[in-house]
Amino acid sequence: MITLSLLHPLHKTPVQSWAFEQESVVRIGRSTDNNVVLYSAVVSRHHVEIHRTKTGWSVKSIGTNGTYLEGRRIVEVPVEDGIVIRLARSGPNIQIHMSEEKRDPLKELLNRRRPAENQALDPISHNEPSESQPQADGEALPHQTTIINH
To answer: CB atoms < 10 A from the CB of 129, how many?
Structure first.
């Protein structure tokens, strides 16, 4: 699994995160067809691709304004857990975390129980649960959009 976190421009703390388990390529950019959409004037429509490799992950810059790691412009680099890339010289910072899927017995138990719960009525609306309702377990939803003013 790979997790991307948008960092606050001043405090460098995560303000939004996206987790990807099945994807072999994660795309970041301004265009709505990316996995992570960031609205910033310095972010290209298709700015960065993060590819799964045989040994881990790799970050590839495909945007016009470049991608930076530790102040240096990169073309393609292997991902090390916790690295922070900057989209363009003055753009948003994205922190990348990698984790191997570990067996979580509690999560497995909850997932087994979930189908039975989905057959129950929604206690708030007294209707069948909707597929469009956000997940309660905090998992990131695909194609989330963040507005950034730089």
So the answer is: 15
